[in-house]
Design a protein that fits this description.
Oligomer: heterotrimer
Shape of chain C: globular
Distance between the termini of chain B: 32 Å
Strand content of chain C: 15-25%
Helix content of chain B: over 70%
Structural class of chain C: alpha/beta
Number of helices of chain C: 11
Chains: A alpha/beta, B mainly alpha, C alpha/beta
Order of helices and strands of chain C: EEEHEEHEHHHHEHEHEEHHHEE
Order of helices and strands of chain B: HHHHHHHHHHHHHH
Largest sheet of chain B: none
Radius of gyration of chain C: 21 Å
Radius of gyration of chain B: 24 Å
Structural class of chain B: mainly alpha
Strand order of the largest sheet of chain C: 6-7-8-3-9-10-12-11
Number of strands of chain B: 0
């Protein structure tokens, strides 16, 4: 059995705001096998980005455990953490604000290499940058350009090259294609997939776009208001979604196919506030199938079919 | 592709081959488009040259300070382009010589403000928390005292000399610099590329110096140029009140003060120093505006 | 030839932006006819010229640097390009409205939503302010927001609700033509579904014609009757939904469909269109899509393609069809 590169246990992140305690991530657990991709899906405010950043300790978690290669990342001291950064990297959503506008492509990509002193010789470093640029499909002549001179697709490639510069094993992709045009999205997704095969990378792919995550993931976890509501292998999730939110999410995607005129499930109401959550199923207020049991406690994530987990009292189809 | 291989063989690295306009060159290119700013730059350049040359070309004792009673209170003429004052001193030469006081005080005072205020602002913006609160509250206290009054206090306490004047005017602007620096740092701090640097393993010092400082420079630079103008005016005001550079030094502010009693019949005595101050400060402000516009990436579109 | 049934008639519209770095040829001669009560999707990626076309219809293209170089724009028979500002102000908000992508900045934070809806009504209809406020409340109910919230300020609403308020303002005067520029891009997908359903219902109820600008072909399938695909300032293919979706003809349209991850077929490899949009200050003399087109011929580089009418409704601009045997890979469905 392949080993789990990343294991997250009961991760929590609460923010103390003036209006109360914000439960951004509320007890999330999952594991990612080496070389595989976990897609984490959800809409704004569900906590998926915070989860990604907390695993990398870009945000310090409130409680929980994160194991990378068997060791608890949350217990590292500062210098161990700095070393660990070579193995765990992140690709950001916004190709505009994720690159320092005052640095050239060369400086941006070589920075992680300089920080960890991987290639002390300047010329060798430059060759490595050129190599990385070629890997991600950036023309050699762009090496001294500034980010604002390039379009979104190229900037995102710079971000990917930067993440690859230290030869990481695990990359958190935080909505890497959401800000790009459709045809560029496809290019970047193909690139990421190629890189995964070539370099045996493990991905955590965060997105709100279910059609993208289908193409890209081995397993998918659906989040809502800080909790995991469903987790299953990708094909299984799309074939047999069990949580009412997953079903609604799937049906909400507009499909560019005239033969698929399906009956859409339109959720009522808005997403409730993640501050001071009452003790009930987070989704109860918008769910079409609630009953009393849903309102008095938060359902736990349990395995309903092999490898298929749902947090719901009455999963559909069971 | 072929060309680059040949070039690589010759030993020219790729970075040299594809050298592009650096950021500074781009800012200069934008700056040049602003006619007012360029005019300001030229005028300031001229004033600076005058300030430097005047030191060597004009003899202080014979031409600036020596009183020639026979030539007192003469209207502007070929001999004395700006006329003479009540002691017979040539005003034109005094104005030329006086440029050095205004410029040097303006620049040094702002350097003082920048050094103290800038550092305080960057620290409070980056570290936040308790440190930020203390620094900001101290700045609030200082800025609640009217600038001129504060400068007067410091001047009186330590005696009026050029050096004290520079420090006094400098301290007056510290809160403004601290605020601008803090705001600049806070805007930059929230950008994702800072997070990216942390994800790459950068230390806080590295982030501060390689990422935050260069990106915060723009608003701070603009403040610097703006403040030079107001420093000059503050210095002149202090001299006008007799608390600045002592007579008989031809500082423009004190020349204004001296001319006050003669303003009805010999208005040229106040007019020329006044114009000199206005032109200097105006040119600096034009440069500041031009710099701000040139550095603003959004205006590039 | 004035067709009484046309709400919008655009002929050979050309809009350029004259900047110091060159002339940006944003819109290069488009023809568009929209019948009353129909909805058309204007599809294309960033830089295709869709937003500029929409702004041109309302004469809102920033001038300078934008210039409407030529063309005819007729709204319900009236020539828009000949109207003066006063006449335009009467038309905007009443006969034709526009809603934009970002609901956060479209609403004025210092006025209540009720006031903002009522403002539109008062400007165009001869009613008292209390009547306008009543109508405003009704409009809120119409878009699914309780009427008593008319006294709340924009910051008290979520993104989806703000967009609904914006729709209420746009439809408050029973506008004849609504232009929606990527109205749901900034919204979550479940909220997007709500807003699209709302737009469909309102379209039915008020018999409003709609131009939906989007890059999402799925949204077009949900809401529109017709489609026009834009690339580098030209409409390269247009027709009914069936024409363009099931009998796709233009290589770019095919490329768009191929780039979309298919929810139903996860194994299918994504086929992105190689390269990127041409620089609008430097368009080639031939077909703008030729550098990226898998079916390119010599003629494509030298000459602009002529429009070919495949049926009464279906038009495509592609020189490859000079060869009567030519067809693209995407099969008819």
């Amino acid at each position: 059995m392949a080993k789990n590169l990343v294991e997250v246990k009961n991760l929590k992140k609460y923010f103390n705001t003036s209006r109360g305690m914000l439960h951004a991530v509320d007890g999330v657990s999952f594991a990612i096998e080496e070389g595989k991709t976990l897609g984490v899906v959800g809409e704004s405010g569900c906590g998926k980005s915070t989860t990604g950043r907390t695993i990398l300790r870009l945000i310090e978690p409130s409680s929980g455990e994160v194991y990378f290669n068997g060791r608890n990342v949350l217990k590292y001291n500062e210098s161990e953490l700095r070393k660990a950064r070579k193995d765990m990297q992140i690709i950001f959503q916004d190709p505009f604000s994720s690159l320092d506008p005052r640095k050239t492509v060369n400086q941006i990509i070589s920075e992680p290499i300089i920080i960890h002193n991987l290639i002390p010789n300047k010329k060798d470093r430059e060759n490595r940058v050129l190599e990385l640029m070629e890997t991600v499909g950036l023309a050699e002549r762009l090496i001294n350009t500034y980010p604002h001179e390039l379009d979104g697709g190229r900037r995102q490639r710079i971000g990917i090259a930067r993440a690859l510069a230290v030869n990481p094993k695990f990359i958190v992709c935080d909505e890497p294609v959401s800000a790009l045009d459709v045809s560029i999205q496809a290019q970047i997704l193909n690139l990421l997939k190629e890189l995964q095969e070539k370099l045996s990378l493990t991905y955590m792919f965060i997105t709100h776009d279910l059609s993208v995550v289908n193409h890209f993931s081995d397993h998918i976890a659906v989040m809502y208001l800080g909790k995991l509501v469903e987790k299953a292998p990708a094909e299984e999730l799309f074939a047999h979604p069990l949580h009412p939110y997953t079903v609604a999410l799937l049906s909400a995607i507009p499909v560019p196919d005239l033969s698929e005129r399906k009956k859409r499930i339109i959720l009522k109401g808005e997403v409730t506030s993640p501050i001071n959550m009452p003790e009930e199923c987070r989704f109860a207020k918008r769910c079409l199938y609630t009953c009393d049991a849903c309102k008095d406690h938060t359902p736990e994530l349990r395995e309903v079919y092999p490898n298929h987990f749902v947090a719901c009292e009455f999963p559909l189809g069971v | 592709m072929e060309k680059s291989k040949v070039v690589s063989v010759l030993g020219v690295t790729a970075t040299k081959k594809y050298k592009k306009l650096s950021q500074i060159a781009e800012i200069w290119h934008n700056f040049k488009k602003n006619k007012g700013a360029v005019l300001g730059l030229i005028v300031l350049g001229v004033i600076t040259v005058i300030a430097i040359v005047a030191n060597f070309a004009i003899d202080y004792d014979t031409q600036i300070v020596r009183q020639v009673v026979s030539e007192r209170l003469q209207n502007p003429s070929w001999n004395h382009p700006f006329g003479t004052d009540q002691y017979g001193r040539d005003i034109f030469l005094r104005i030329l010589y006086g440029a050095r006081y205004s410029l040097s005080i303006g620049i040094v005072a702002v350097m003082v403000s920048l050094a103290i205020g800038g550092v305080l602002g960057i620290i409070s913006g980056y570290f936040g928390g308790f440190l930020e609160s203390i620094i900001m509250r101290l700045c609030d206290v200082f800025s609640s005292i009217p600038a001129l009054l504060l400068a007067i206090c410091i001047s009186t306490a330590f005696g009026a000399s050029t050096f004290v004047l520079m420090i006094a005017v400098g301290i007056v602007s510290v809160p403004a610099f601290a605020r601008v620096a803090r705001a600049a740092v806070m805007t930059v701090r929230d950008n994702e590329y800072i997070e990216a640097a942390r994800a790459a393993g950068a230390t806080r010092m590295r982030i501060m110096f390689t990422h935050i400082l260069p990106n915060s420079l723009a608003p701070i630079m603009v403040q610097v140029t703006m403040r030079v103008g107001s420093a000059i005016i503050t210095a002149s005001s202090l001299s006008f009140l007799g608390l600045g550079i002592p007579a008989p030094a031809p500082e423009w502010g004190s020349m204004l003060a001296e001319g006050r009693s003669f303003i009805r019949d010999y208005s040229y005595m106040t007019m020329f120093p006044g114009i000199a101050i206005v032109i200097t400060v105006l040119s600096i402000n034009l440069i500041g505006d031009g710099l701000r516009d040139a550095m603003d990436p959004k205006l590039k579109r | 030839m004035k067709d009484k049934n046309l709400i919008l008639n655009i002929e050979n519209l050309v809009v350029h932006y004259e900047t110091e770095n060159g002339t940006v040829k944003a819109v290069n001669g488009i023809d568009l006819k929209l019948e009353k009560k129909r909805a058309i999707g204007l599809v294309g990626e960033t830089g295709a010229g869709k937003t500029t076309s929409a702004l041109a219809i309302l004469r809102l293209v920033p001038d300078p640097p934008g210039v409407i170089k030529s063309g005819i724009i007729e709204l319900d028979g009236e020539n828009i390009l000949e109207k003066n500002i006063k006449e335009l102000e009467k038309i905007r908000g009443k006969d034709i409205s526009m809603i934009f992508q970002d609901p956060m900045t479209a609403l004025n934070p210092v006025f209540t939503v009720g006031e903002q809806i009522a403002e539109s009504i008062i400007l165009h209809e001869n009613v008292s302010s209390s009547e306008a406020n009543e109508s405003a409340k009704e409009m809120l109910e119409m878009v699914g927001i309780p009427g008593h919230r008319a006294n709340d300020y924009p910051h008290q609403f979520s993104g989806g609700m703000k967009q609904r308020v914006v729709i209420a303002i746009a439809l408050a005067c029973h506008t004849k033509l609504l232009i929606a520029d990527e109205p749901t891009s900034a919204l979550d997908v479940t909220i997007q579904a709500q807003v699209l359903e709302l737009m469909n219902n309102l379209k039915e109820k008020y018999q409003t014609s709609l131009i939906m600008i989007t890059h999402d072909l799925g949204i077009v399938a949900e809401v529109c009757d017709e489609v026009a695909v834009m690339y580098a300032g030209r409409i390269v293919e247009k027709g009914t939904l069936k024409d363009v979706f099931n009998m796709t003809k233009h290589p770019y349209t095919e490329g768009l469909f191929n780039s979309l991850p298919n929810v139903n077929d996860r194994k299918a490899k994504l086929l992105p269109i190689p390269g990127s949009m041409p620089d609008p200050t430097n368009l080639s003399i031939g077909c703008s899509f030729s550098p990226r087109c898998p079916y390119v011929t010599d003629k494509c580089h030298e000459q602009k393609p002529d429009p070919i009418w495949i049926s009464d409704t279906h038009m495509v601009e592609c020189s490859a069809y000079d060869d009567p045997a030519f067809h693209i890979v995407r099969r008819e469905r």
